[in-house]
Every structure is written in C-alpha cells, then in structure tokens.
C-alpha cells in the first residue's frame, strides 16, 4: 500500500528497493506480544480499581475476579495466536539457542520470530502472575 | 523484496591509488574538522558533543556525590548540629535530583552519542545539531538547578516532590519552582536525545546490518530510548499540572477543591519506575558489549538478551505503584503491582545468566573493565534480591521509606549502573583518547570503591531494620542507630576516595604518551575500527556489514575501510554525508546531508533556558521575549539547515551504488523524528487523559451536573472546525504534489483562521458555563485539555506559516516537499488529540448520564 | 564484601534490641513480617552465593566446547525457570500474609491526624471521642484499628516494632490495624518526608496491660483539674495560649495545636522528642524554634522569671 508519505522526488528509488518501512509487520509483532500483557495488566487494574472505588468498601471481589481470569485467558489466547505466527516465521525445529546470524531476509525474519516466541513465553508467565492476586483476594 | 545485497555482484573496489586516497582524506578532513579555537563550542559532531556530555554528567555526579558526603557527615553522629534542618532537606533533595536527572539519565545519552554512531559504522547521528541543542539545554538547566543551593533556595521537597508539600506555596518556596522548571527543561533535552537515538538505530545503520545482525548495544539503546519516550512525558504532564497549581492556583492536587495529592504520585512514578530501568539497561548494555571482547567469542544467547531487554522494558511500566504500597490503595490493586515487580526478576535473571553462560564457554581475559563488571554483578545481584523482598507488600510496609530501601536502591543503582559504567570508562577510554588508563590505579580505585560501597551500604539495611526512616537530618543516641551510621559514613568516604583515584586516572594528562595500538582489546564491534590517531570523520568509508562482530568475522575489513573501498569515501561536494538505510534490513535508501558547526543551536538553547529560568521567578514579560528568541533561533536553524534541495538528485556512493540525495516522507529521518516526537507528545497527553479518569475513579463528585458542563454544541462545532483545518493541511500536501503552489499556500494559511475558530468555540464552550480552573478539579481539567490543544495549535500555526514561506521561497517544491509531509504528520497527531479531547469533554459525561 | 560482613556482624547482633526495631516481636503484624524477613534474608544469602559461585566457576573453568550445552541449561534453568518458580511462590506467600494482616475492624478504633509536625490522636469510645496528642497507648493483645488522615501534607504513621506503616494523605482516610503482643514503650515515627521538621515528628506507642489501659483512657477522658484563679493558668490565658491549645475544663479551646488537657501525663514533649521535664518545658516555651525548627508555635522569649515558672508549674500539673 502506498501512502502520500511514500512519494519520493522524481520517483528515484535506490537500486531495486521499494520503500520498506514496516511491511510484513516484522517489527510490530515483537512489541505486540508484551503489549497484550500490558493491556491485560492495565485492564485488570482498572477493573479492580473502579470496582473498589465505585462499589462499597469490602465489596465482594467475586465478579472482577472472574473478569480478570477471563481477560487472562483471552490475553493468553491472543499471545498463542501471535506465537503461531512467530513459529511460522521462525520456521522449523524449535532450537532454543540457535544463533541466527545469516545475512539474509530470511535470517532476519527467523530472528524476529525467535525473539517473539521467547517474548510469548515471558508474557504468558507475566499474565499468570497478574492473575494470581485476583485469585488470592476476595475483598477490596 | 528479492534484492539481497549480494557481495559477489558488487563491483570490485577500484584499485588503490595513493594520490586519490590522500585527496579524499583531505576533503573529508576539511568537511568534518571541528571549528578552531574558542569557536569549538559551535561544534556539533558526536565526538565533541559526546565527550562534553560525558564530562558534564560526571561533573554533576561529583557535585551530587559531594552532597552525599555532606549528608553522611551530618548523620555520622547523633544530634549533630553541623547543618540546619533546612539546609539538610535541600542537600538530600538535590542529591537525589542531581543523581537521577543530571547524571544517571544524561550519562546514557552521553555514552550513546559518543559510541553509537561508531558502533554503527556511521559518521554521525542523523541530527547532530539536535544533539548539540540537547547538550546545551542540559548544561544550562543543570547548572541552574544545582546552583540554587549556593543561594539557599535549592528544592527541599524530596526528589519526588510529593504534593501538597510541593504544590502549596505555603509549604514550599522557590525551590519547588526551580525543580519543576529546571527539570522540565532537562526532560525536554532527554526526549530530544531519545528521538535522536531511536532514529539513529533505526535509520543510520551501515548497509547490510539487518536486525538480526545488530549489536546488542544498539538493541539496548533502542529499547531505552523508547522507554524514555513513554516514561518522561507523563512526568512532563505532571510538572505542567503542578506548576499551574503553584503559579496560578489551578485546582489539581488540593483536596479541598476536588484535587487529589495521589494523582501526582501516579504521574511521578509512571515516570519514576521505568526510569530505574532506563538507568540500568544502558549499563548492562555496556557489559554486553565488553564481555564478548574479553571472552573472545560472541555472546551466548543473543536473542535471549534481546528478549530480556524488551521484556524488562515492558514489565517496568507495570511496577510504578510499588512506590505507593503504603498509600492505602485497595490490597488487590497493590497486588497486581507486586506481581509485576516479582515478574521483572525473570528477564533480569535471564540477562545475568547469559553473561555467566558466556563466561562458562570461554576464557575471560582478566582486565580492569572485567574487574568492575564482576563487582557490578556481586553488588547488583544483592540489590536485586532485596528488590524481590521489597516487592512483597507486607515486607514493604516495614521497609518502605526506611534505610533498608536506601540500601536497596543504592545496591541496584551502583551495582547495576555505576560499576558497569566505570568498566565502560576503562574500556572505551582508549577509543576516545587513544591513550590507556593506568591499570594499577584502576585496580586500586575498584577495590576502594567496592570495599567502601559495601561498608557504607550493607550496614544500612540493618539501620532500616532498626527503624531509621529516610530523610531525617538528625536522630538521638537512644535510637540505637549511631554505630551503624558512623560505619556508613566511613564507608562513604572510602568510596569517595576510590572515585577520586578513578577521576585522577581519567583526567591525568597523557599527551606525551604514545598512542595505543588500534583495536587495543581485539574487539569485534565497529567502533574499534577507528584509526589511531583519531580522525574527525568517524569512518573512512562506510562498509557493508553482514556479520554480528564485523571486525572478527569480516576479513580485512579495517584495511578495506581505510583504503576507501566502501561507500562514501569522498566528500566532493564539501558536505557532511551519511547513508540512511531501512529499518529491517538496512538497505541503503539515500545519502543524507547533515549540518555542520553552528551557533544557532547554542542561541536556541540559551533562549529556551533563559525562558524557563525567568518563568521560575514569574517574570512573564522577559520570559516571553526569550521564548520568542528561542522560536526565532529555531526557525533560522531549520530554515538554513534542513530539507535543503540538493544540487543533484542522486550521487554515486561507490561500489556501483547510486543513491538519491533527498528523501521525504517515511524514508527521511526527519519524518521519523516527527513521528517519534509526536508519539512522546501523545504520551504526555495520555498523562492528562489518565488524570481525568483518575479523578473520575477516585472522586465520586468529579463530574459536575449538566449545567456546569461545557456546552455540547459548541464543542462539536469546534471539533468540526479543527477537523476542517486538518483537512486543509492534508489537501495542501496533495495540491503541492500536483504542482499547484499557490493553492497549497492558500490552504496552509487558510487553515489558521479555521483552526482558530475551532479552538475559539471550545474556549467559548467552557467560558460561557463559567468554568473556573481555580475552583474545582473538573474545571481545571477542562481548561487544561483546552490549553493543551491551544498550545499545540499555536505551534502548528507557526509551522504552517513556516512551510507556506518555504513554498513561497522555493525551498519546498512540488517534488521536494519533505517539510510539508512532516507538517501533515504533525497535524494528524493534532487531529487525534482533538478527537480524544472531544470524547473526554463531551462524550464521556454523556455516557455517564450527566450530559444535556 | 566478606570483610564488611564480618565487620558488621556484631552490629547485627547488637541491633536486635531497640524500640524501633522491626524484629522486636512486639506486634502480631510485625511478627508475620519477621518470619518472612528471616526466610527471605537466608534465601537471599544462599542465592547470592549460588549466583556468584556460578560466575566464579564459569570464570575459573578451563575452556571446553562441550560446555555449550551446560551453558544453555544455565540460562534456561538458572535464568528463567528457577526465578519464575521462586518469585511466583514468594508472591503467593506475600499476598496471603497481606490478606491476613489487613482487617477492617478492631477491638478499638483510634483516629490519628497528621499535622506539621505532630499527631492529633482521637480515641473513639462509647462515651464519645477522647482527644489527646503525640502519645498513643494501646492495650496488649487487642487489635487496634487506626483511621489515618492528614491536614496539610502527606505523613506516614509507623510503629516499626508493632507492624507496617501507612501514609496519611490529605483528603483521604487510610486504615491500618496493629495488634501489640508485648507491653512496653515502642517508638513511633513519621516515615514519609513531610518537609521541615520531619525528623522530629515522633511519638511514643505505649503498650499496656488491658486493665491499665482502661484506667488510663478513663482518666484521659476527664477534663483537667484546674483550680479557679490558678496563677499558672492566668499566665497561660494572658499569653493567649488558649487560642491554639485546648485544655478541657477551662476556657482554652484552641483547635490548632495539640490538646494539653493531660499534657504532663505524657512521657515526651514536642511530639516524642524531649523528656517531659520542667526544664525542657521552659525551654520549649522560650526557645521553641531552637528545640524544633520551623514549627507554627511562636516562641515566647520575653517570658521569664516568675511568670515562666508559674506557667511551667501549671503545665506540669496537667496530669
């Protein structure tokens, strides 16, 4: 897709290279995974904060608790979906410690996939951590 | 996307010709040489700015360290009468403030400005003049804030400036204003540096350095600069609210007028906690760069380190409330932050174990930098473990605001930040000066600092357990804290002695010593390809990079670079040139011309600094004059230094590569700079949005009744007009592209009155309903949002007139119209701000059922 | 590192006394944290030794390519899995303790209002509020609920020996429960920096047997016994002290400063910082700002001789 901001003077382009900003969504997937954790975290916090502020003190936390767990499940599912994309990018056998140093587009793509995959694991762990308080506390 | 750069398809370099080499070198030297004599202050090259930045940061570090020693002297014995209560309160406030804002963050920028371009094999960062501007802002603001203590008016509200202590002029004097304005000014320079570094990492990589080949240091810089972009703006929003309350009595933090002191704590710590990691990660980056050199092999788990850097960056934004565990928030809310605070230990652990794993599979050469790195590990791990403790809410209820926390934070910051930095000083000293530091003095300084540090801070944990609170200027013998404090004071002086040895070692004149060998540590990263003695051009020719450790893995790279066999070996046009590449694969996009030495940035920084300083004293008229001076210098700088239409549309860059000499839109670094700056600006705006919702959550009566809301119709009309103004700007971009210069100028100028009517309608909407910002927090919030929009619109108008003038005078043409594209991008963000503001002022009350 | 550990060891041992000590086991809440503290401290020491040991081992070990696998295990197990499990467990434990030590009700309720730089203390009893200042007495083995507020800036209420701290924030009310289990005079502090004389904002937290406490509270609820025409009270009234201070049972009903009805029954003067002696009292009145800088109470340097003696004698009689 070309935007107004892609146009160049006299339409000169470097040898064989179309403008490449963020096509293939390559970098954004890196940020998207932890962003899901961040969204879940903030939503959980807001749900609890609004619940505690707007309901009476000692309000039962049963309902927000399930909202938080539900959000956690949704978040984990979204991460799993991105994880699948990451696996496809990364390609092939899952070797935890591969050093992807080949100088090619494919190498770059596999690297991003690999880091994203690792971030998926970390983000799911972080989401689990965020859900724990929801399970421990029954009141505000 | 089929075009891999294929080495075998590149034409071979031209055969070496000594006469040509000499001529090229002379031309490069002429272009990149720094101005002679006193005019050196107009230099903008990263070599100079980086060094000055570094030395200035260390000067502030020394200053803040002396304050720390004074604090320790005061606390050495009970009931000490050495300093008065008032002076002591200033001492610790300024110690924390200077260490955080004038040392820890700037030093990251200093080191990055100094070494990042060289690690990237680039000649300079994409906006050298912006770096220079940032530096001058930093030094002016820093001297202003620190100097205040000599007049007895230093800030004395703690480095966190909690409201209402800081917001009520009855409780705090001029010091609070100095803190607010001085530091806002420095935050601006931090954000400028962040923009510079992000664009530098994304767009100034050498051809071929794909993301998977990018050195770890660059990953860290990217991550940290991104964090600055999201962490600093909320504080700037907070500063704005606080200064409005202090100067004009707007009701944001005063509970009697519907304000809430806790809002400040949220805004401050949303900045404050990521800040800790903004300080910590760049130093870890230094270790991650040094360790492979001394291990003689690549880092084990490269992608794991990238994971942990990105992971820490994100998680660190979920920790801020752990500074507010004792503020009585609901336990469940605290627990989320406790959870995130614990979770952040995981990526940190990965980071550390990657280092240990690298050591395991290699033989690390003993050296002073590695000695410091080892000390850093020992100290930081301990600080991390106490961090796990204080992240538990019940534990924190005891430890919070006690000396236990003082000990914890110094363990993390000195172990996680200062020691790696000292390691880096020893490591890059030969790179910067072509001389080597004395190893024996280095070892001495290490052991003095390591021993002194532990002597000072290990007992401090116990002082905390014994119940000593922070920020007390005196205590009684019967409290039982005397011996522990005396030991800490002794330790502090041993530590200071160690730093003195280090400082002497750094500053020792070594002019007569022979220069060091090239690539003295046998490192693999590009900065060590610099010739000895150093040349001002950064790199003789810009090579094609296809490995992670080019000096190890690309044979004879240094020779090829030196012989000018790679790109841009010459400066025929007498211009400073860089290669701009794309984000993913670093394909060459175009040749960027950057500005050389100038006094304009100095003038701009001076005027802006003067404006901030005068505002502290509420001298509004002169403030405005200097503000105008700043605008003048900046416009002059932009007019003469940016988006110059090249004399030829493309040029030969060597090795069969012909590149354009101009780019606009999303290929140009300028467009990305606007995009990134506006992202930061939106984050500050989000700080205001957060404040609005915070009030709504915390205060039951925040939303007033319908008759006290700004009029819906006027708000809607205003939005429509603001949208119209935006549409005209977008249309101008298209019309200019089609060659209709007159129409484009008309649209640009015509957008002004339309926008003015729009903001006027909003002001009218609030005015007619009698909203008084000094009376109620809701009213203050409404006016603040309108003010925010108005200030941005004002800036936008200046830009419109600027671009219209550029079109008029032929600097912005149908073909070369980067200025207009950048302006359009800015205006897009403005439209988003307008929509959000409308949603908050008009739609949200309606949804909550209080609308008309 | 090792050197300084040895050096501070005796201090650690010596440190187990002290009236502000978290580890004094004087309160049920502090006790829970104390248990957590020792586990965390020993755990941290062990982990620190393990990590540093691993680093030293990695450094000393001969280079051996077969170690690549071991190196990777290091990262996964040492860097990722072990910390996750450990901090996850700690998190749950910490949250459970948090849940246990917070309660919304107590056997008695005390309202404490933080002022610059002293404490207004109000006991809620069935017969109404009992107002005092700068000294908090509590019955042993009873849970006290503190309702904390602040008038001007943020303060923080902390009796380290009894339990954790809680901030006092203008415009909000925060709550803290403490259950003392040992009698004694435990120190209380303001933990949040509140400007000026923050360091001198202290109080005594005196834990008493329950019967003693009841007697004390009943006495505290009584008005002061001031004889008509008391010469010291006359000075007090003439100097306008009553504009700020209240002495129940007299005309002095100033709401600004601390309630003085049973002033002399308190152990300390000036918000927990000076012994309650006639000498200190006289100095407090004449050299107020030397004793505690920046406070709102003006000094009365011209008051001297017999008038000062009479005033001091009167104040010291308010028990």
From TrEMBL, chain A:
What keywords is this UniProt entry annotated with?
A: Membrane, Transmembrane, Transmembrane helix
Which parts of the chain span the membrane according to its record? Answer: 27-53, 65-87, 111-138
Keyword Membrane annotated: yes
Give the protein's recorded name: Uncharacterized protein
UniProtKB/TrEMBL annotation, chain B:
Q: Does the keyword Cell division apply?
A: no
User: Origin, by domain of life?
Assistant: Bacteria
A cellular component term (GO) from this record? plasma membrane
Q: Could you tell me which residue ranges the Cytochrome oxidase subunit I profile domain spans? A: 32-536
Q: Which family does it belong to?
A: Belongs to the heme-copper respiratory oxidase family.
List the pathway annotation. Answer: Energy metabolism; oxidative phosphorylation
Q: How does it sit in the membrane?
A: Multi-pass membrane protein
Q: What is its EC number?
A: 7.1.1.9
Supply the enzyme class, top level. Answer: translocase
Query: Where is the protein situated, by its record's location annotation?
Result: Cell membrane
Recorded catalytic activity of this chain's protein: 4 Fe(II)-[cytochrome c] + O2 + 8 H(+)(in) = 4 Fe(III)-[cytochrome c] + 2 H2O + 4 H(+)(out)
The residue ranges crossing the membrane are 52-77, 97-120, 132-154, 178-202, 214-236, 276-295, 304-323, 343-361, 368-393, 405-429, 441-462, 482-508, 594-613, 619-639, 671-694, 714-732, 744-765, 785-804, 825-848
The reply on keyword Membrane is yes
Q: Protein name, please?
A: cytochrome-c oxidase
Organism, as annotated: Salipiger mucosus DSM 16094
Alphabetically, the GO molecular function entries are: cytochrome-c oxidase activity; heme binding; metal ion binding; oxidoreductase activity
| Any one GO biological process | electron transport coupled proton transport
Arranged from A to Z, the UniProt key words for this protein are: Cell membrane, Copper, Electron transport, Heme, Iron, Membrane, Metal-binding, Oxidoreductase, Respiratory chain, Translocase, Transmembrane, Transmembrane helix, Transport
Cite the SUPFAM superfamilies for this sequence: Cytochrome c oxidase subunit I-like, Cytochrome c oxidase subunit III-like
The record's annotation in InterPro entries points to:
Cyt_c_oxase-like_su1_dom, Cyt_c_oxase-like_su1_sf, Cyt_C_Oxase_1, Cyt_c_Oxase_su1_BS, Cyt_c_oxidase_su1_bac, Cyt_c_oxidase_su3-like_sf, Cyt_c_oxidase_su3_a-hlx
Automatic annotation (TrEMBL), chain C:
Q: Which GO terms describe its molecular function?
A: copper ion binding; cytochrome-c oxidase activity; heme binding; oxidoreductase activity
The Cytochrome c domain extends over 227-319
Q: Which SUPFAM superfamilies match?
A: Cupredoxins, Cytochrome c
Q: Which reaction does it catalyse?
A: 4 Fe(II)-[cytochrome c] + O2 + 8 H(+)(in) = 4 Fe(III)-[cytochrome c] + 2 H2O + 4 H(+)(out)
All copies of domain Cytochrome oxidase subunit II copper A binding, residue ranges:
105-219
TM ranges are 36-58, 74-98
PROSITE patterns with a match to the protein in the record: COX2, COX2_CUA, CYTC, PROKAR_LIPOPROTEIN
The function of this protein is: Subunits I and II form the functional core of the enzyme complex. Electrons originating in cytochrome c are transferred via heme a and Cu(A) to the binuclear center formed by heme a3 and Cu(B).
Identification of the protein by name: Cytochrome aa3 subunit 2
Q: Which organism is it from?
A: Salipiger mucosus DSM 16094
């Amino acid at each position: 897709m070309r935007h107004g901001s892609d146009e160049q003077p006299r339409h000169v382009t470097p040898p064989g290279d179309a403008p490449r900003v963020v096509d293939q969504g390559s970098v954004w997937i890196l940020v998207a995974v932890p962003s899901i954790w961040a969204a879940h975290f903030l939503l959980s916090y807001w749900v609890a904060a609004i619940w505690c502020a707007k309901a009476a003190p000692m309000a039962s936390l049963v309902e927000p608790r399930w909202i938080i767990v539900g959000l956690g499940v949704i978040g984990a599912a979204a991460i799993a979906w991105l994880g699948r994309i990451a696996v496809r990018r990364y390609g092939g056998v899952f070797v935890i410690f591969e050093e992807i140093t080949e100088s090619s587009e494919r190498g770059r793509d596999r690297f991003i996939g690999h880091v994203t995959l690792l971030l998926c694991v970390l983000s799911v762990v972080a989401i689990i951590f965020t859900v724990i308080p929801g399970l421990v506390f029954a009141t505000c | 996307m089929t075009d891999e750069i294929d080495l075998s398809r590149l034409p071979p370099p031209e055969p070496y010709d000594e006469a040509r080499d000499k001529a090229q070198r002379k031309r490069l030297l002429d272009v990149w040489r720094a101005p002679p004599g006193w005019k050196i202050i107009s230099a903008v090259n990263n070599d100079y700015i980086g060094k000055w930045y570094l030395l200035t940061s260390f000067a502030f570090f020394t200053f803040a360290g002396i304050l720390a020693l004074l604090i320790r002297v005061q606390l050495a014995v009970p009931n000490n009468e050495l300093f008065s209560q008032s002076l002591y309160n200033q001492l610790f406030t300024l110690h924390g403030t200077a260490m955080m804002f004038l040392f820890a963050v700037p030093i990251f920028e200093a080191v990055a400005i100094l070494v990042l371009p060289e690690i990237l094999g680039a000649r300079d960062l994409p906006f050298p003049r912006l770096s220079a501007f940032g530096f001058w802002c930093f030094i002016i603001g820093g001297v202003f804030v620190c100097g205040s203590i000599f007049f007895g008016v230093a800030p004395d509200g703690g480095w966190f400036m909690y409201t209402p202590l800081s917001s009520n002029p009855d409780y705090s004097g001029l010091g609070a204003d100095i803190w607010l304005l001085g530091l806002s000014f420095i935050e601006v320079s931090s954000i400028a540096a962040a923009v510079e570094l992000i664009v530098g990492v994304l767009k100034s990589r050498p051809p071929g350095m794909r993301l998977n080949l990018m050195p770890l240091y660059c990953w860290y810089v990217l991550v940290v600069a991104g964090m600055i972009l999201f962490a600093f703006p909320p504080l700037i929003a907070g500063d704005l609210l606080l200064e409005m309350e202090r100067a004009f009595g707007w009701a944001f933090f005063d509970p009697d007028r519907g304000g809430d002191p806790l809002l400040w704590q949220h805004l401050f710590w949303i900045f404050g906690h990521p800040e800790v990691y903004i300080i910590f990660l760049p130093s870890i980056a230094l270790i991650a760069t040094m360790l492979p050199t001394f291990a003689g092999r690549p880092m084990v788990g490269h992608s794991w380190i990238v994971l942990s850097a990105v992971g820490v960056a994100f998680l660190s934004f979920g920790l801020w409330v752990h500074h507010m565990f004792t503020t009585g928030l609901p336990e469940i809310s605290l627990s989320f932050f406790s959870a995130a605070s614990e979770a952040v230990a995981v990526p940190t652990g990965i980071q550390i174990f990657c280092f240990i794993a690298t050591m395991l599979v290699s033989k690390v050469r003993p050296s002073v930098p590695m000695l410091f790195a080892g000390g850093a590990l020992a100290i930081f791990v301990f600080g991390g473990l106490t961090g796990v403790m204080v992240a538990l809410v019940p534990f924190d209820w005891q430890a919070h605001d006690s000396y236990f926390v003082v000990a914890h934070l110094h363990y993390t910051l000195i172990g996680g930040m200062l020691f790696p930095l000292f390691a880096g000083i020893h490591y890059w000293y030969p790179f910067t000066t072509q001389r080597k530091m004395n190893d024996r003095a280095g070892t001495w300084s290490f052991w003095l600092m390591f021993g002194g540090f532990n002597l000072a801070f290990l007992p401090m944990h116990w002082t905390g357990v014994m119940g000593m609170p922070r920020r007390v200027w005196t205590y009684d013998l019967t409290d039982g804290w005397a011996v522990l404090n005396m030991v800490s004071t002794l330790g502090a002086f041993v530590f200071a002695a160690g730093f003195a040895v280090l400082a002497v070692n750094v500053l020792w004149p070594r002019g007569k010593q022979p220069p060091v060998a090239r690539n003295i540590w046998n490192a693999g990263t590009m900065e060590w390809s610099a010739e000895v003695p150093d040349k001002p051009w950064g790199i003789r020719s810009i090579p094609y990079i296809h490995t992670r450790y080019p000096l190890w893995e690309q044979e004879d790279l240094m020779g090829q670079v030196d012989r000018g066999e790679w790109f841009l070996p010459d400066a025929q046009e007498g211009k400073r040139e860089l290669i701009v590449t794309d984000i993913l694969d670093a394909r060459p996009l175009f040749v960027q011309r950057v500005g050389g030495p100038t006094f304009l940035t100095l003038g701009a920084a001076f005027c802006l600094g003067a404006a901030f300083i005068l505002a502290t004293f509420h001298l509004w008229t002169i403030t405005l004059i200097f503000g105008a001076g700043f605008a003048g210098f900046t416009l002059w700088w932009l007019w003469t230094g940016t988006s110059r239409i090249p004399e030829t549309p493309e040029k030969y860059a060597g090795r069969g590569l012909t590149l354009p000499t101009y780019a606009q839109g999303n290929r140009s670094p300028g467009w990305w700079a606007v995009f990134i700056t506006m992202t930061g600006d939106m984050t500050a705006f989000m700080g205001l949005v957060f404040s609005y919702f915070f009030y709504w959550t915390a205060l039951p009566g925040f939303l007033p009744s319908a008759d006290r809301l700004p009029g819906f119709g006027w708000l809607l009309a205003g939005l429509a007009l603001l949208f119209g103004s935006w549409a005209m700007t977008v249309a101008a971009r298209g019309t200019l592209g089609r060659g209709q210069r007159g129409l484009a100028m008309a649209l640009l100028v015509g957008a002004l009155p339309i926008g003015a009517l729009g903001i006027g309608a909003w002001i009218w909407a609030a005015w007619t309903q009698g909203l008084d910002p000094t009376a109620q927090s809701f009213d203050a919030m409404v006016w603040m949002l309108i003010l925010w929009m108005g200030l941005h619109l004002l800036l936008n108008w200046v830009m419109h007139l600027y671009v219209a003038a550029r079109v008029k005078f032929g600097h912005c043409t149908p073909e070369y119209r980067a200025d207009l594209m950048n302006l359009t991008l800015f205006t897009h963000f403005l439209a988003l701000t307008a929509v959000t503001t409308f949603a908050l002022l008009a739609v949200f009350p309606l949804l909550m059922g209080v609308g008309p | 590192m090792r050197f300084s550990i040895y050096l501070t060891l005796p201090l650690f041992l010596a440190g187990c006394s002290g009236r502000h000590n978290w580890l004094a086991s004087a309160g049920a809440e502090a006790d829970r944290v104390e248990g957590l503290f020792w586990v965390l401290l020993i755990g941290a020491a062990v982990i620190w030794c393990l990590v540093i040991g691993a680093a030293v081992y990695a450094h000393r070990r001969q280079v051996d390519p077969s170690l690549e696998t071991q190196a990777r295990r290091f990262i996964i197990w040492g860097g990722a899995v072990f910390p996750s499990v450990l901090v996850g467990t700690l998190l749950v434990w910490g949250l459970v303790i948090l849940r246990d030590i917070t309660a919304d009700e107590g056997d008695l309720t005390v309202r404490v209002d933080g002022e610059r730089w002293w404490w207004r203390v109000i006991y809620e009893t069935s017969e109404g509020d009992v107002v005092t200042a700068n000294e908090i007495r509590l019955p042993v083995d009873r849970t006290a609920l503190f309702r904390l507020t602040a008038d001007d800036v943020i303060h923080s209420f902390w009796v380290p020996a009894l339990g954790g701290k809680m901030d006092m924030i203008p415009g909000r009310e925060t709550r803290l429960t403490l259950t003392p289990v040992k009698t004694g005079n435990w120190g209380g502090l303001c933990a949040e920096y509140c400007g000026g004389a923050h360091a001198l904002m202290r109080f005594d937290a005196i834990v008493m047997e329950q019967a003693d406490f009841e007697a004390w509270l009943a006495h505290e609820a009584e008005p002061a016994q001031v004889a008509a025409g008391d010469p010291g009270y006359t000075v007090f009234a003439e100097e306008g002290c009553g504009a700020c201070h209240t002495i129940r049972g007299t005309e002095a009903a100033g709401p600004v400063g601390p309630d003085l009805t049973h002033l002399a029954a308190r152990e300390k003067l000036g918000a927990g910082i000076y012994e309650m002696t006639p000498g200190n009292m006289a100095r407090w009145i004449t050299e107020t700002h030397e004793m505690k800088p920046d406070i709102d109470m003006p000094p009365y340097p011209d008051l001297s001789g017999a008038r000062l003696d009479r005033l001091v004698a009167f104040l010291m009689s308010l028990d």
